[in-house]
Specification:
Bound molecules: pyridoxal-5'-phosphate
Strand content: 5-15%
Helix content: 25-40%
Number of domains: 2
CATH class of the largest domain: Alpha Beta
Oligomer: single chain
Radius of gyration: 22 Å
Number of strands: 14
Structural class: alpha/beta
Number of helices: 11
CATH topology of the largest domain: Aspartate Aminotransferase, domain 2
Strand order of the largest sheet: 1-9-8-5-4-2-3
Largest sheet: 7 strands, mixed
Length: 385
């Protein structure tokens, strides 16, 4: 079915404006002078790898998260990979995580030689269902890897209590949750290590790839520092074989500028989520995201659920409204993980959510008018059904 839209705007007839899923240009325009000056300074210094900006950004990000240490790496996937390695995860081990995440979470496990073990999710917050963890623990289990998906903190205290009880490591995938809080503490700061991505669409976004591990553990921090730089602490002295996974100076310089407005940007995301919630509260066919009493959600994504997901997405597209699916196929049903021999029905909550979730446009500069346009599009769609 095709849908037509005609909108009159102002005196001259302009084409109806769509709503992008994401727009980073507006924020860049605001901070352009400062960012450009910092980038220019790095260029002038000709020091591009592990210099002053990386050191300062590590200090500033550790302070933001409330941890002793922060170690910059090349991307979020490496943050997870190196954090697991530094926590002793390797061949013969198992790591417990969720099937409704970006594949980077599980790549980090299997690329360290460990086995991925999934547990289902809580249908309210789309994060790990803590009540299902213990039955998956055996003598090979080495770590639990919860994901703070969409910017909503997982229930991390009970995860860490289970980790402690069985002498396991708890590592947080906070790649979508910069600045989110759990019981007043920043996500990433509660487990043995917390991992962040600075991919350009994230709440704290580089102009390319970047990542960070935060931790209170001196040994973990030192090990990651060594691993990210070919296993060396002193030039050309290699105690182990490591990786090339360094955060570069230009990205660190940009991230230092952007970190200053992260709280403000997260506040704007929260305000936008609140407007969506208000406008959609009477649409019975739509489940809007909740914020638990212990959490400060930072809405990396604003994700609704509906039984008519595909039709709604198509309708919104016809009105120029871009949406996303995070993620349409749970990892246990991906071809890449066929060897794990999971089947449809193994994780019913994650499977049901994958069929119903729809990510609506979300970024700090989204306007009330844009959100109203999206909400009325959704209402019109359901009125026609
Ligand atoms: C939940 C999650 N984990 C890990 C990653 C990996 O981060 P990167 O793309 O920086 O490697 C991402 C990035 O999209 C993510 O969303």
């Amino acid at each position: 079915m095709r849908y037509k839209s005609k909108v009159r705007v102002g005196a001259g007839m302009k084409k109806a404006m769509g709503v992008p899923f994401f727009d980073s240009k507006q924020h860049y325009r605001l901070i352009k002078d400062e960012v450009d000056a910092h980038v220019q300074r790095v260029m002038d210094s000709c020091r591009f790898v592990l210099g002053k900006n990386v050191k300062c950004f590590e200090r500033e990000f550790a302070s933001f998260c409330g941890t002793e240490y922060a170690v910059g790496v090349a991307n979020g996937t490496d943050a997870l990979r190196l954090a697991l390695l530094a926590c002793g995860v390797g061949k013969g081990n198992e790591v417990i995580t969720v099937p409704n995440t970006f594949i980077a979470t599980t790549e980090a496990i299997s690329q360290n030689g460990a086995k991925i073990v999934f547990v289902d999710i809580d249908p309210q917050i789309y994060n790990i269902d803590v009540s299902q963890i213990e039955e998956k623990i055996n003598r090979r289990t080495k770590a639990i890897l919860p994901v703070h998906l969409f910017g909503q903190p997982a229930d991390i205290d009970p995860v860490m209590m289970i980790a402690k009880k069985y002498n396991l490591k708890g590592i947080e995938d906070a790649c979508q949750a910069h600045g989110a809080e759990y019981k007043g503490k920043k996500t990433g700061s509660i487990g043995d290590a917390g991992c962040f991505s600075f991919y350009p669409s994230k709440n704290l976004a580089a102009f390319g790839d970047g990542g960070m591990v935060v931790t209170d553990g001196n040994k973990i921090a030192q090990k990651i520092k060594m691993l990210r730089d070919h296993g060396q602490i002193k030039k050309y002295e290699h105690s182990v074989e490591g990786y090339n996974s360094r955060l570069d100076e230009i990205q660190a310089a940009i991230l230092r500028v952007k970190l200053k407005s992260l709280d403000e940007q997260n506040k704007l995301r929260r305000k936008n989520a609140w407007i969506y919630n208000e406008l959609l509260k009477d649409v019975d066919e739509v489940i809007t995201p909740i914020e638990t009493e212990y959490a400060r959600h930072v809405y990396h994504l604003y994700v609704i659920r509906t039984g008519k997901r595909d039709e709604l997405q198509e309708y919104l597209k016809s009105k120029g409204i871009s949406t996303g699916l995070h993620y349409p196929i749970p990892l246990h049903l991906q071809k890449a993980y066929k060897y794990l021999q999971y089947r449809e029905g193994d994780f019913p909550v994650a499977e049901k959510c994958a069929k119903q979730i729809l990510s609506l446009p979300m970024f700090p500069e989204l306007t009330r008018e844009q959100i109203e346009k999206i909400a009325s599009g959704i209402k019109r769609f359901f009125a026609r059904c």
